[in-house]
Design goal:
It is built from 2 helices and 7 strands. By secondary structure, the chain is an alpha+beta fold. A 4-stranded antiparallel sheet has the order 1-7-4-5, covered by helices on one side. A 3-stranded antiparallel sheet has the order 2-3-6, with no helix packed on it. It is globular and about 40 Å long. The chain starts with a helix and ends with a strand.
Length: 142
Amino acid sequence: MRRTRTGVALAATVLLALTGCDTAKNTAGEIVSSATAAVASAAQEKMNEVKDGVNATGDVSAGATSTDGDRTVAEITATNPKDKTADYTILVTFRDADGNLLDAVVLNIDGVEPGKSKTGTARSNRTLSNATKAEITQALRH
């Protein structure tokens, strides 16, 4: 996946450097959008691998985003309302102020005891610029 992101960034940079026109900027934006969609699709495939998961979006919340090095991070909290220990697999999307998808990651929070909460950190796959918000797109308890 790293090679794909590097190739996308390089292609976008070359296009902008060679022409500097609006057409090149639009093409670069389309390349980045396509790469973002591919990452989101891969994250959804990962969620689809979870067997016997129960919708638990209501059990999970996302905190505010911040930066850690060159990545955007958000603390994700899973609260287990059931009477036995559970694992959570969570699809977290990072969006800009206009609601545009910037990145998607899958986070596992394992061993959440009954009636307790446990946190994990969702970390973007790439550098995200400007203000971002983390959203819980899907959460499965299993």
